[in-house]
Input
Amino acid sequence: MTTGAVKKAIAMIEFFQALVDPDNRFLAYAMAMGGLASIAFGIIGTFVTIKRISYLAGAISHSVFGGIGLALYLQVGMGISWFDPILGAVLAAVVSALVVGLVSIHAKEREDTIIGTLWAVGMACGILFIDRTPGYFNLSSYLFGDILLISHRDLIFVICLDMLIVGVVVLFFNRFFGVCFDNEFTLLRGINTTFFYLFLLVLTALTVVLLVRIVGIVLVIALLTIPPAIAGFYARRLWEMMLYSVILCAAFTWTGLGISYSLSFSSGPTIIVLCGTVYLVLLAANKFIFHLKK
Amino acid sequence: MKTDISLNNVSFAYKKQPILENVTLTIPHREFASIVGPNGGGKTTLLKLLLGLIQPDKGDIQVLGTSPEKARERLGYMPQYAHLDMTFPATVLDVVLMGRLKKSTFWFSRKDRDQALSAIKTVDMAAFAGTGFHELSGGQKQRVLIARALCGRPDILLLDEPTANVDHETEENLFSILQDLNRDMTILVVSHDLGFVSKYVKTVICVNRQVVFHPTTLVEGTMIKDIYYGDLKMVRHDHRCSEEGHCND
Output
């Protein structure tokens, strides 16, 4: 065995030891969070990918920063102690989901400009609120994620969100399928497509808030869309794509967390580089195979 | 004779630009009509009015004796497939089952599945029920979308350019299926191809701001000129054109 391989093996052992070490509870939390969150990411990410609304999800995630900024300002600056960042994030996400959704339905020609504006303004508001808040804040943990931030409460939040998403999707699967594949036809079958579209965006918003804890605002879109994009290579049906996405997402988050712990890298970027690389390699390989078949 | 669709003095404008003006027309039961006209002439607008997707500025529309919104569930609609996402993960059966979506139920029943499969059989796609929609050819996709429109057991079938981007043989197949279906349902086909469609349909509805309703036998050069404001070459489907040029035999 080479020294490199020995080092790797030791790093692996250390990682699994760290996982069960009570002093390193944050790591066990992060792994649990990654696995549980993958259920929400895989399902919602599939909808975001097939409905092609990753741009809307991007605007929502950046507005979340505005909410976090507002919450910090109210909590620390104004002394409203119950208004914590996660509440601000959830509020901002849901409000921006509804605004962005209505814009995408009604503002036909200017849609991308308006959504781009909301995207930037949401982010800028967050910074301005934080400027006005006394004290120092480590912004990079919100922007790029930080597994140290994950708490017991986040785990409960993920479990609730998973149950909500699985329940809603099982109940309304055919309606969501219709809205994503052919909105007009679904409307003609008597389904309230606007409601289900906005509902989907609100679920996306809640999932984005969750994702921000793991990979941060800037990298959210990648983790939401890359696993479904890979799943899309192999899935023939919508539910298959969801299932594959969930599995891939969990695999990427766990592997990424393991690597980031062993090599002392930031967790969010490690996960994103990992799944982005796998996606691009598979994409190139598929194109290559396609050419060979020709 | 029973009337399926009637428009009385209907006008519709988009951004103050009149698209349809004072359109009056009646379509009897078991009609097989083609809606033809130039691009931007109002064909799609007419279809959307019939489906209740847009409201007329003026006039009255009756579909199956009621308003278009109320008649919706008894209409079968086939959109242009070019608007659909071709990478969407769905089998032929998944797509056709959309025609069984209902406000009152969440999941598809065995009956829904049977109806969808029988609609797939009607359009000769039975062997493809489990195939991915994106793996099909253009003509096969059109047939699947017709099956989707059919499986709600509609009284009226509305098809938006079902022959766009398909070859001659596929067109023939599609129309022979439609001819069979016409035995118990009214069929309206939007087409930009006047010469071809008139060979199959009973009547032609020419749409260009105004609507002129003609039996096919009356479609002649001078009338086309009136509608299109210019000379138009009739597409002659009894002739074939090769890549080298037209062969007139």
